[in-house]
Amino acid sequence: MREINMLREDGYNMEGDSRRKKIIDILTTRDRAITGNDLSEMLNVSRQIIVQDIALLRAVNKSILSTNKGYILYSDESKRFKRSYYVTHTDEQIAEELEIIVDNNGKVLDVVIEHDIYGQITVDLIIASRRDIKEFLQKLKDSKTKPLKNLTDGRHYHTVEADTENDLDIIEKELNEKGYLVN
Fold this sequence. Notes:
This protein has six helices and six strands, in the order αααβββαββαβα. It has helices at residues 14-29, 36-43, 47-59, 94-103, 130-143, 165-177, and strands at 64-67, 70-73, 81-88, 106-115, 119-127, 155-162. The strands form two sheets. The chain has a four-stranded antiparallel beta sheet. A two-stranded antiparallel sheet has the order 1-2. Helix 2 packs across helix 3 (47-59).
């Protein structure tokens, strides 16, 4: 899979621009994430070309998130509400914490930690259902890695999105009742 560059005299890559438009079209029509490998197969280029295209698209303010399931186009123009929660829990409580959020109409957008050396580290999660939770936990298990929160003794933030402020209030109340909220 070798890319053929079609450059105009001014150095503009017409084929790359067309491919990046197709990437946006694909992401726009999908309601779930798509992997870089799937995009590379669909567009008949290497996965590295897709990674480069995504980086270029992000540079021109396209809202493309890279999640553990692949790429997803995210629109900040939604009418949904967002709130960050500062939480702590054990590894065994990850599922329960995420279930509180998704069972109350929330979507976990990310996990954020404040590391003493590296500063703020943010990772997109995009967890909106129990199935997403199950897949996330399975990937954690299969990768034999530790959750990001373990770098900060369990303390981390989640940005959560919901349809109403009331949904966010209920999520906050339940997280607090379980002792997950850091005061």
